[in-house]
Design brief:
The chain has 420 residues and is α/β, with parallel strands linked by helices. The chain is built from 13 helices and 16 strands. Bound molecules: pyridoxal-5'-phosphate (PLP).
């Protein structure tokens, strides 16, 4: 048997050979993970409320996903879709076209990461509309590549020192559709705008949701002006909010939908799904990539779709959301350091504040993450000020782990509240 190094030794090597910019949340190195639990190389067991930043909605190593991966790996691992095609790619494209909102012909293709899906959506939108302007939002996050980072709002840590950024990107505040209307008068003519890209629930931004009228009005303005509406569902999709896609809560049909993260239960895969006429407009050879739509990842994604159906995961997400929402409201009532609650369904988050100053408290949020880790729970921060705690546990988490995890948060909130 291979002898595992200890966390401390691995951390030393990590610090020697891996740049600091590739940040980490906890100092553990994982040896195995199952459902909603991770165990590190020293046998320390943690309940996972981070789910690989929302990639593990079906749980770590779901047997159906593992079997699909094994089965595919024994047949063929990669041929490159551009060289030799394979069925899992086609089957996944078909199924995603069928389940995404919009009763019209659709097409889909694949990439490897969320950021790459964003890049591709912008390429397709510009090609189809023959326009270059892209409208994005304040507090948005769309990835770390040049286009993804240019569309992203928060400067530190995502953009500082990494410019110049991609041109023809315009940013408006999130949540007020009237501002979009006047923006098209004051800043850029609608005839120059290819697309508007929005997260239905802003993920890194703090699980922020816009008011009910926002997306319907945005979609209407897009339609009137020939602007494409791209929904970035990379964090909010795959059942997180209780519907398969968060945009369904607004009853709005995007022209293009982007998926990644939980799509393939942790394997690198992203999808760009949209109206057929848009998706099929670029010339042959204009889209794709060597690894894009890798068959093992496609098989994992097909297993994920099966799990949603067979295990009634949307219902589970709804129930989980109700439990979390109840708990968060209790904390909000009982602790002065718990501020606003954000999100919908089981995509929920709560803000840690300094109650005396009534301001976001990033340091305390970070302390909460560290305290929880020491007691065996992994949670994540997010938000403009880094003060929001987001909950992205697998939707399949069992009651015991859920309650244990929530109790760890509660005890630490109690501790921080008393010390306040
Ligand atoms: C909404 C959204 N878009 C895009 C991305 C980028 O995805 P990736 O990190 O896979 O490139 C993320 C990642 O957090 C995201 O939350």
């Amino acid at each position: 048997m291979r002898i595992m190094k200890k966390n401390k030794d691995l951390l030393e090597l990590r610090n020697k050979y891996v740049p600091q910019a590739v940040y980490n949340t906890i100092p553990s190195f994982i040896e195995r993970a199952k459902c909603a639990k991770m165990t590190d190389v020293e046998g320390f067991e943690m309940i996972d409320f981070a789910g690989g930043i929302g990639t593990i909605n079906v749980g770590h190593c779901h047997p159906k996903v593992v079997n699909a991966i094994k089965d595919q790996a024994e047949k063929y691992i990669h041929t490159c879709f551009h060289v030799a095609m394979y069925e899992p790619y086609i089957e996944l494209a078909k199924r995603l076209c069928e389940i995404t909102p919009g009763d019209f012909p659709k097409m889909a293709f694949f990439a490897n990461s969320g950021a790459e899906a964003v890049e591709n959506a912008i390429k397709v939108a510009r090609y189809y509309t023959k326009r270059s302007g892209i409208i994005t939002f304040e507090n948005a996050f769309h990835g770390r590549t040049l286009m993804g980072m240019s569309l992203t709002s928060k400067v530190k840590p995502y953009k500082l020192g990494f410019g110049p950024f991609a041109p023809e990107i315009y940013r408006i505040p999130y949540g007020d559709a009237n501002l979009f209307e006047t923006f098209l008068i004051d800043h850029i003519a609608p005839e120059s705008v290819a697309a508007i890209i929005a997260e239905p629930v802003q993920g890194e931004g703090g699980f922020i949701t816009p008011p009910p009228e926002f997306f319907p009005k945005i979609a209407e303005l897009c339609q009137e002006n020939g602007i494409l509406f791209i929904a970035d569902e990379i964090q909010s999709g795959m059942g997180r909010t209780g519907t398969m896609f968060a945009i369904e809560h607004w009853n709005v049909v995007p022209d293009i939908i982007l998926l990644a993260k939980s799509l393939a239960a942790g394997l690198p895969l992203s999808a760009i799904i949209g109206r057929k006429e848009i998706m099929d407009s670029p010339h042959i050879g204009g889209l794709g990539g060597t690894y894009s739509g890798n068959p093992v990842a496609c098989r994992a994604a097909l297993a994920v779709l099966d799990i949603f159906k067979e295990d009634n995961l949307l219902h589970k997400a709804e129930i989980l959301g109700q439990k979390l929402s109840k708990q968060l409201k209790i904390w909000q009532d009982n602790f002065d350091i718990v501020g606003r609650i954000h999100g919908i369904g089981s995509m929920l988050a709560f803000e840690i504040i300094d109650p005396k100053a009534n301001k976001p408290d990033k340091d305390k949020a970070k302390e909460l993450v560290n305290l929880c880790y020491k007691k065996g729970l992994v949670i994540l921060t997010c938000g403009k000020f880094g003060s929001i705690i987001r909950l992205l546990m697998p939707l399949v988490i069992n009651d015991e782990d859920l309650e244990k995890g929530l109790k760890i948060i509660e005890e630490n909130l109690q501790f921080l509240e008393k010390r306040n």
